Amino acid sequence: MTVEVRAVASRGERRLFRDLPARLLGDDPAFVPMLDVAFSAIFDRRNPFWKHAESREWLAWRGGEAVGRIGACDDRSLREAAGCGAVGFFDSVEDDDVALSLFQVAEAWLRDHGHTRARGPLSYSIHDTAALLVEGFVTPPTVDTTWNPPYYVGLWDSAGWVGMQDMLALERDGSLTRPRGHRFAERARRKGVVIRPLAMDRFDEELLTATEVYNEAWKDNWGHVPITAEEFAFKAKDMKAVLDHGLVRIAELEGRVVGLTLALPDLNVAIKRSRGRILPWGWLRLLRAKHCGRARCMLLGVIPGYRRRGIEAALLSETMAHFDRQYRWAEASWILADNAEMLNGLKLYDMVPYKRWRVYEKNL
């Protein structure tokens, strides 16, 4: 039966585009839908991301039924940082013809916008959901990480996409009486490193500092694209209500902010129960997610010039101590698979790899 790919052109098709993953994959016990308000925030034209980006989305149809979706984005920030466009929001039935039809339309759109190379899956930024799961399919994703069935890997490979970078998740189940990393943290504190919580009474000021540290600390990491203070604040405003202040730590040395760590309660526990809907009771489940017993550490970085002084260990030590008091299980992700220093540091806290994602590229 012929596959037809059409651009999303109506409000109803936009809702179908949002809900299609649940229709295709919702029977898998590991599936967790994207929260509806998170989806809306990405496409909200008030999102500062759209000041430097434009996109197009498509649905694949066969026999009157939607069987796949995809999007392509021309982001000037990504173009300047990596020389490519983005392909994301890919979902499909297990069918090479459907997947190839979707990829061809998205790739053609990027070529029309002057791109010779594409990167994906990015939906649509490395600061949002990104990467294809390639190992660890049986467990549900944590907050702001991706999940897909195993056959997606074959669909991307068959369409000519090439894996460029792997990212790992490490897990820790239970608490430790004396993690080996604590001694490095204590040494850093003796040398003047101060680890403090986020100052909620100066939240906007703290966000501006965090943006500067984030861009500086991650600037040499593969795949990093600078984020503006306006974008950082837009993402943080929805996070504020569900923030566990014990999971955000700021590192200072000689009065200067030199590093930070950010972890969140695993909101996906609540999102799965509410089937991705904030109404009528999804918001209440999210507020209660602070007590779900699970958390994800998503950012930990120290600016160049201050590394290898034990500051990373001090940040980890504070975060892990809070994990031990409030949570029974923790994940750290995404860690670049070739970031041996970070992986070794996490292993000092008995964290072990259990998932792997991959970012692909393709010459157009």
Assembly status: single chain
CATH architecture assignment of the largest domain: 3-Layer(aba) Sandwich
CATH class of the largest domain: Alpha Beta
- Mean pLDDT over the full residue set: 88
What can be said about the biggest beta sheet? 13 strands, mixed
Estimate percent helicity: 25-40%
- What's the number of extended β-strand segments? 15
Name a few traits of the molecule.
13-stranded mixed sheet, alpha+beta, 12 helices, Aminopeptidase, two-stranded antiparallel sheet, 364 residues
Topology, please?
Blueprint: E1 4-7, H1 11-25, H2 36-43, E2 53-62, E3 65-75, H3 76-82, E4 85-92, H4 96-112, E5 117-120, E6 122-123, E7 129-130, E8 132-135, H5 151-158, E9 162-173, H6 182-190, E10 194-197, H7 203-217, H8 229-239, E11 248-253, E12 256-265, H9 268-273, H10 282-288, E13 294-302, H11 311-326, E14 329-336, H12 340-347, E15 352-363
Parallel strand pairs: 4-5, 13-14
Antiparallel strand pairs: 1-2, 2-3, 3-4, 5-15, 6-7, 8-15, 9-14, 9-15, 10-11, 11-12, 12-13
Helix pairs in contact: 6-11, 7-8
Structure notes:
It is built from twelve helices and 15 strands. It has 364 residues and is an alpha+beta fold. The strands form two sheets. Strands 1, 2, 3, 4, 5, 8, 9, 10, 11, 12, 13, 14 and 15 form a 13-stranded mixed β-sheet that branches. It has a two-stranded antiparallel sheet with strand order 6-7. About 1% of the residues have low confidence.
